[in-house]
Amino acid sequence: MFDGYDSCSEDTSSSSSSDESEEEVAPLPSSLPIIKNNGQVYTYPDGKSGMATCEMCGMVGVRDAFYSKTKRFCSVSCSRSYSSNSKKASILARLQVAGKPPTKKAKVLQKQPLVAKLAAYAQYQATLQNQAKTKAAAVPVEGFSWGNYINSNSFTAAPVTCFKHAPMGTCWGDIAEGVRVEVPNTDSNLPTKVFWIAGIVKLAGYNALLRYEGFENDSSLDFWCNICGSDIHPVGWCATSGKPLVPPRTIQHKYTNWKTFLVKRLTGAKTLPPDFSQKVSESMQYPFKTSMRVEVVDKTHLCRTRVAVVESVIGGRLRLVYEESEDKTDDFWCHMYSPLIHHIGWSRSIGHRFKRSDITKKQDGHFDAPSHLFMKVKEVDAAGEWFKEGMKLEAIDPLNLSAICVATIRKVLADGYLMIGIDGSEAADGSDWFCYHATSPSIFPVGFCEINMIELTPPRGYAKLPFKWFDYLRETDSIAAPVKLFNKEVPNHGFHVGMKLEAVDLMEPRLVCVATVTRIIHRLLRIHFDGWEDEYDQWVDCESPDLYPVGWCQLTGYQLQPPAPQSSRDSQSSSSKQKKKAKSQQYKGHKKMTSLQLKEELLDGEEYSFLQGASDQESNGSASYYIKQEP
């Protein structure tokens, strides 16, 4: 009738445990091991198990926290209640001796052992709680569940270690399947919060599918939770915090000595580091504060920057309000490590166009963000051979991130920055030129798309199709940017095709959506937004701060956009042009209407390297190609 550590091991006529009668498992050793992250065993210094069971309520906790000299009760209340019930039993016995017939309540009390005296009250309270839970469960919960989504489709998620900019991304350690944790026990009739040990069955980003210890292959009570949540603790936390460990009622009958069972199951297993929650908290401290002033790209004119003020910070993502916006509705979202934001004075220092504010002085409370807070770019040597105006290359179109286009270097700035224009779609005043650093993973040498079987978007209105770089360079009297000037580093990012993640829709950067990696080319990922057509896909670098592990939104409190519902999918074909136009208005620049559908032919096990070659007509190395390596 009571879900306790020893509820099945105690004799019904006594409050003491009888370990000698145990036949299913070995006798309890002199000290109860508590596992640590390195698999080593910790024992209490006094040589005792460190655990005690309350003789009043059956709660299990650390022995030193118990009351009375004999450590028999978990609280003063239990000690007094035990004493009170003992007196009642004595009075009832005397009444019977006096010849008075016992009441119905007295008969019940007589039949019950003292160790089970909670039956009347605790069971009643538990029944009320279960009824409330049942009613709550009967109400359908609207919203997206990563756990259900992954389970029902057998999806896999990108590991947290793929996202160095995300919380715990650099200190995730060996958290994997099989790691044990202490979590709240939801399968309990007790009126108070109790805990039990569970093992990780499956990991999906920050989310873990957990199974209570003792369920073996039974998945009926498996549940998903965020491993960085406040209710997830290392094994041993309950003992040191004085919290009760109570086995789920569904399996309480399986063993008569749960302590010995846990000793056998947990010895040598791994758990979270003891400072895990502290590391989570520290990794979610962000240096950017509200009222800081920064320079950020002008979403109405990509070629220039404007001053904006940090309005809010959520999970490292900044809501920036342009300084001249009186009603604070003219805003822009980006991550604090985004290449689109810079310290005040950055534009002037490199020669970038800048829109001066009409505000003559800083508003009260606003202050410039320190320069050391911004992401540093790799230093480059522009003294020797370097990019020049007019050189051709291939670049991701910032106004249509699903396309890699023919592009031209329009201006060379200081510190390795370049102004890039998309051929055939540029505004006459250059207002849609975009600033890329020379080391940017969003620009590529001529020939990148061809060798990697990506369809290159030719200049709008170009008649000679299929597009050939050699012909185009000759027709425009241009040269290709030397391949050696491009970023050739490919980190061991850990992404694989099919992995799930949460990704920013960079055409509407306030939105973080359910997404999938559908293709990988070196360090370049093609991100598909689940439920939407392929034309909304975006090419993103593997180290982009706009990609997050599954569960990031839940952890940080950011709103996650679920996959488009079936009704939206059905209407995509008829309204795709309107939707695409609407999505592309985030920058509100000059939109290129491209109808090319990229081919998604995945290449398995093929690697490519950068090599420089020359065409028959060019011997100066200006024509460049990606050469496929033979296996």
State the name of the first-level CATH class of the domain at 175-272: Mainly Beta
Strand content: 15-25%
Structural class: alpha+beta
List unreliable stretches of 5+ residues: 1-34, 36-49, 91-100, 104-141, 575-631
| Tally of DSSP helical segments | 12
What this model shows, in words?
The protein is 19% helix and 23% strand. With 631 residues, it is an alpha+beta fold. Among the domains are: 175-272, Roll (SH3 type barrels), CATH 2.30.30; 286-368, SH3 type barrels (Roll); 391-476, SH3 type barrels (Roll); 499-561, Roll (SH3 type barrels), CATH 2.30.30. Strands 10, 11, 12, 13, 14, 15 and 16 form a 7-stranded mixed beta sheet that branches. Strands 22, 23, 24, 25, 26 and 27 form a 6-stranded mixed beta sheet that branches. Strands 8-7-6-5-9 form a 5-stranded antiparallel beta sheet. The model is unreliable at 1-34, 36-49, 91-100, 104-141 and 575-631 (pLDDT under 50). One of its GO terms (molecular function) is histone binding. Residues 1-18, 566-576 have a biased composition (Low complexity).
